Automatic annotation (TrEMBL):
InterPro entries: FAD-bd_PCMH (IPR016166), FAD-bd_PCMH-like_sf (IPR036318), FAD-bd_PCMH_sub1 (IPR016167), FAD-bd_PCMH_sub2 (IPR016169), MurB (IPR003170), MurB_C (IPR011601), MurB_C_sf (IPR036635), Oxid_FAD_bind_N (IPR006094)
Name this protein carries in UniProt: UDP-N-acetylenolpyruvoylglucosamine reductase
Domain FAD-binding PCMH-type: 11-194
Enzyme class at the top of the EC tree: oxidoreductase
Keywords: Cell cycle, Cell division, Cell shape, Cell wall biogenesis/degradation, Cytoplasm, FAD, Flavoprotein, NADP, Oxidoreductase, Peptidoglycan synthesis
Catalytic residue positions: 166, 249, 351
Cofactors named for this entry: FAD
Species of provenance: Brevibacterium daeguense
Length: 359
């Protein structure tokens, strides 16, 4: 099977040693068979590639020669968690958006602003998935993970996971070892029993809903508004729309020293702790999309034969126009990264995981 069939970019070469796990026990067995050596002597030998929804992967055209594990474990366990709250333990392979929709049917709120994000539940704490003023870290109670070094199953509380903007302890340890150490088995969410949404924090969403920042409206209304906004940007998967043949936002919003020199009209956003809401006065976040726009890269920008272009709806997404290769997407990403750095002195960092390739 080509890994292109398992990713939203729809690129990536063959995986001759691919397996699919459909339960937590099968995932544990897979992890147990493929333990991680903390000091791998030969980093050129590929480790295991874990694939969930494939929405955050850019895989080399040559494919992946090591073992590849597709996580399709499913199941949701619900139980009370004190007055007005419920705990939902969700297996890693559950589809994220389907799970979000199910929370509203259960009369629970807190995840509605994260509607429409492609991928699996198990991937969300790794990247601390966020959108429209919400981050998944705010609703996570704990995560059960397999430690591929010790062979233990460990439960981490939210405070143990070092959540930040599009990062977590899971992501940092993977970077440290050059391979995944902790494989998410299940995620437990703590959600309030309510029909009204969490406070609306994002100005574009507030405008779409016709309310002020901080207002609460029907959680179902928030979900519908978020889905409409995402669709208008090509951020809801649609086989017929090549703007959605992407990994969503390709570059993260840069976090800079608070005294960084930015153009006067460049956006500046506070950086806050996703669990406490405390602002970090030492840093500021700016908009990657603004930098790309103002560096001269318009919607639909492409190079060469334009097999890969920026989305025609949203300059932060790199897209496969139907027959692009990973090499095409990387060439486009380099052009944009280098162009932004040449003008603003800010180096954009990719959000997707690059497998067998480099930017």
């Amino acid at each position: 099977m080509n890994l292109a069939d398992l990713t939203t970019f729809r690129v990536g070469g063959p995986a001759p040693h691919l397996m699919t796990v459909r339960s937590r026990s099968e995932l544990v067995d897979c992890c147990s068979r493929h333990r991680l050596q903390p000091d791998r002597p030969d980093r050129s030998v590929p480790d295991v590639l874990f694939v969930g929804g494939g929405s955050n992967l850019l895989i080399a055209d040559e494919g992946f020669t090591g073992p590849a594990c597709v996580i399709r474990s499913t199941g949701i366990d619900e139980r009370p968690a004190g007055t007005g709250q419920r705990l939902l333990t969700v297996e890693a392979g559950e589809n994220w958006d389907a799970f979000v929709a199910s929370t509203l049917r259960r009369g629970l709120t807190g995840l509605e602003a994260l509607s429409g994000i492609p991928g699996s539940v198990g991937a969300t704490p790794i990247q601390n998935v966020g959108a429209y003023g919400a981050e998944v870290a705010e609703s996570i109670d704990s995560v059960l993970a397999f430690d591929r070094i010790t062979g233990e199953q460990l439960r981490f509380g939210a405070q143990d996971l070092g959540f930040g903007y599009r990062t977590s302890m899971f992501k940092r340890t993977a970077a440290e070892h050059g391979a995944v150490r902790f494989v998410v088995l299940a995620v437990t969410f703590r959600l309030p029993e309510a029909t009204m949404s969490a406070p609306v924090r994002y100005s574009q969403l507030a405008r779409a809903l016709g309310v002020e920042i901080g207002a609460r409206v029907s959680a179902c209304e928030v979900r519908e508004a978020v889905l409409a906004l995402r669709a208008s940007k090509g951020m809801v998967l649609d086989d017929a729309d090549h703007d959605t043949w992407s990994a969503g936002s390709f570059f993260t919003n840069p976090i800079l020293p608070a005294d960084a020199v930015l153009p006067e009209d460049a956006p500046r956003y506070p950086v806050t702790d996703p669990l406490t809401g405390a602002q970090d006065p030492a840093v500021v976040k700016t908009s990657a999309a603004w930098l790309i726009d103002h560096a001269g890269f318009a919607k639909g920008f492409g190079i060469g034969d334009r097999r890969a272009t920026l989305s025609t709806k949203h300059t932060l997404a790199l897209t496969n126009r139907g027959d692009a290769s990973t090499a095409d997407l990387l060439e486009l990403a380099r052009r944009i990264r280098d162009g932004v750095e040449g003008i603003f002195g800010i180096r954009l960092e990719p959000e997707p995981n690059l497998v067998g390739c480099r930017l």
